[in-house]
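Lab meeting, item 3. Inverse folding demo.
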């Protein structure tokens, strides 16, 4: 593992602050054979729509696509849990030859009859794109019979990057909203976009807004319900969190309904406070909202600062590597890690833009590696070279961290603990502290060898 080289075509996607001129290549299709950490278009659409709990999610394709994204997020529901089922048309060789439309129609009718969902989402996969099934016409036919919205998700895995999957999901959400027309405005109201209720985060954030006196019309898509989504045009403001995934929808809603949007993050003290204050200042004609926000932030920060200071004593000087889906999350993580006294030695993302990477460059210290659309070997190379103590990522990054013998923190779909908001910052600090200071890492051969030298 010592001398890992980087593929020539991948060199342009890697930037070291202070060493290279900033000219990072990004927003490109992944290099064939490079084993990208990126997910496919279908997976991108699935992660955005998945938390809508009273909808039927059916994957039109081979069973592997369905199992790959089964229960893909730790997105909780306060009611129905239909989203947690993984339905598939399970296309086989015969269907590839003769087409899968009849199978899809039959599956939709049977499932809608059995589970009475409020809408159905039909995800297209690679094979469907290749054999050319007319999914739209099947959806139209079934919609006529069942009288619920049946929407095709144009997410054929090969047709772009994960970002195209986000866009396909946003188009479906917009279709749902638009079917209901423009609704009467709800005063002092927002839609929360790009929040997926992982570990109950949506509930915590909604509680903050409730305390501030803000009405939440819909959340897309954490603890989501089809009816709430269809009412989204009645909100005064769209508050966009996971901007990479839902900015397309926010822009469409701004164009069509004149609803402005702001980009926020609920990770870390700084960004959570900033998010709440920005929403409060949008409704500045009501000075009570700002007063309540100040009170809320003061109380929440006071409750967690002593614990964080204690943890910081052990973490100061430790080194962290971050590899996430959208770069916007990396910005918050860098701030949160600095708060804990840690240094970021690697920051990368699956779908960052040139603008995102420019911001990352500004936030990172000299020597930090910035990576676009990385693969496991590149991540391992720089983690070892920079001797990181912690790796923050998702399900595909976890084995890399453990194989290298360093701490890991899941900041992606699968976790069960909320990391958003003020309490989330406390949970994050505790988790990072537990994993970084675990004595198990001292027994890793790489470290033992170093200690003997
Ligand atoms: S849609 Fe294509 S790339 Fe995505 S999981 Fe299915 S086969 Fe794989």
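The presenter then showed the designed sequence:
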């Amino acid at each position: 593992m010592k001398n890992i080289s980087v593929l020539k075509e991948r060199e342009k996607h890697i930037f070291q602050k202070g060493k290279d001129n900033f000219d990072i290549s990004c927003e490109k299709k992944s290099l064939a054979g490079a084993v990208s950490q990126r997910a496919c278009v279908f997976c991108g659409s699935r992660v955005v729509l998945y938390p809508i709990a009273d909808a039927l999610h059916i994957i039109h394709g081979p069973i592997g696509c369905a199992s790959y994204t089964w229960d893909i997020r730790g997105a909780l529901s306060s009611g129905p849990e239909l989203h947690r089922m993984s339905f598939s048309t399970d296309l086989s060789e015969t269907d590839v030859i003769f087409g899968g439309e009849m199978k899809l129609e039959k599956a939709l009718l049977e499932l809608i009859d059995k589970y009475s969902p409020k809408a159905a989402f039909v995800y297209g996969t690679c094979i469907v794109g290749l054999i050319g099934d007319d999914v739209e016409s099947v959806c139209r036919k079934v919609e006529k019979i069942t009288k619920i919205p049946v929407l095709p998700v144009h997410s054929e895995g090969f047709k772009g990057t994960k970002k195209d999957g986000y866009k396909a999901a946003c188009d479906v959400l917009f279709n749902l909203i638009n079917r209901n027309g423009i609704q009467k405005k709800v005063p002092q109201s927002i839609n929360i976009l790009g929040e997926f209720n992982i570990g109950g985060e949506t509930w915590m954030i909604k509680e903050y807004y409730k305390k501030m006196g803000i009405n939440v019309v819909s959340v897309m898509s954490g603890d989501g319900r089809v009816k709430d989504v269809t009412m989204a045009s009645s909100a005064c403001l769209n508050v966009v969190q996971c901007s990479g995934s839902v900015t397309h929808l926010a822009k469409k809603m701004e164009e069509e309904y004149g609803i402005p949007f702001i980009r926020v993050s609920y990770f870390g003290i700084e960004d959570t406070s900033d998010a709440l204050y920005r929403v409060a200042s949008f409704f500045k004609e009501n000075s009570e909202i700002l007063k309540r926000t100040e009170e809320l932030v003061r109380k929440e920060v006071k409750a967690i600062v002593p614990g964080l200071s204690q943890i910081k004593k052990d973490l100061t000087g430790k080194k962290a590597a971050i590899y996430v889906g959208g770069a916007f999350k990396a910005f918050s993580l860098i701030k949160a890690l600095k708060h804990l006294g840690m240094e970021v030695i690697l920051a990368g993302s699956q779908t960052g833009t040139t603008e995102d990477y420019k911001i990352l460059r500004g936030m990172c210290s000299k020597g930090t590696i910035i990576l676009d659309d990385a693969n496991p070997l590149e991540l391992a190379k720089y983690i070892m070279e920079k001797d990181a103590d912690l790796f923050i990522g998702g399900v595909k990054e976890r084995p890399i961290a453990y194989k290298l013998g360093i701490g890991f923190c899941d900041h992606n779909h699968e976790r069960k603990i909320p990391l958003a908001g003020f309490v989330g910052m406390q949970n994050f600090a505790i988790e990072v502290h537990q994993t970084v200071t675990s004595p198990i890492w001292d027994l890793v051969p790489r470290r033992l060898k170093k200690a003997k030298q």
